[in-house]
Amino acid sequence: MKISSTAIFGAAAALIAMPAFAAPAAKTTETRLSTLLVFGNDPCPRSSDDEIVVCARQPESERYRIPKQLRVKRYNAARDGSWAGTAKVLEYVSTRGLPGSCSFNGTAGQTGCFRRFLEENRR
């Protein structure tokens, strides 16, 4: 028995279309969720049938401020410290590996170690 390709195509189309005729389409309702920041005595908007509104109340003094998560600045010695402290850090960092640096790689490292020893004891 030989089956033609049009018969196979017709049967496949009937199977695909069958569920559409079998059951009516169900009505789907989507509810939206809205979260808002409300400042001072401002009213929170009312919810509707298809929307849920959640309000978080902040004091009036926070209305025009940058959010707290973005206000945090980490301490940076070069920006927030004194100039003397910054100069000391830069002096220490820039002398590594140079003569008088108290390091095992570099020329005259032992003289730098002795100089550091004298400076620490002088304090």
Could you describe the 3D structure shown?
This protein is of the alpha+beta class and 123 residues long. Among the domains are: 32-69, no CATH class; 76-122, no CATH class. It contains five helices and two strands; from the N terminus they run H-E-E-H-H-H-H. Strands 1-2 form a two-stranded parallel ribbon. It is rod-shaped. The model has no long low-confidence stretch (mean pLDDT 74).
Provide keyphrases for this structure:
single chain; 123 residues; two-stranded parallel sheet
Outline the low-pLDDT stretches: none
What about the largest sheet? 2 strands, parallel
- The value of Rg in angstroms is 38 Å
List the secondary-structure elements in sequence, H or E: HEEHHHH
Helix content range of the residues, please?
Answer: 40-55%
Distance between the termini: 107 Å
Number of E-type strands: 2
Strand order in space, largest sheet: 1-2
Q: Average pLDDT across residues?
A: 74
Number of DSSP helical runs: 5
Given helix and strand content, the structural type is alpha+beta
Q: Beta-strand level of the residues, as a percent range?
A: 5-15%
Shape: rod-shaped
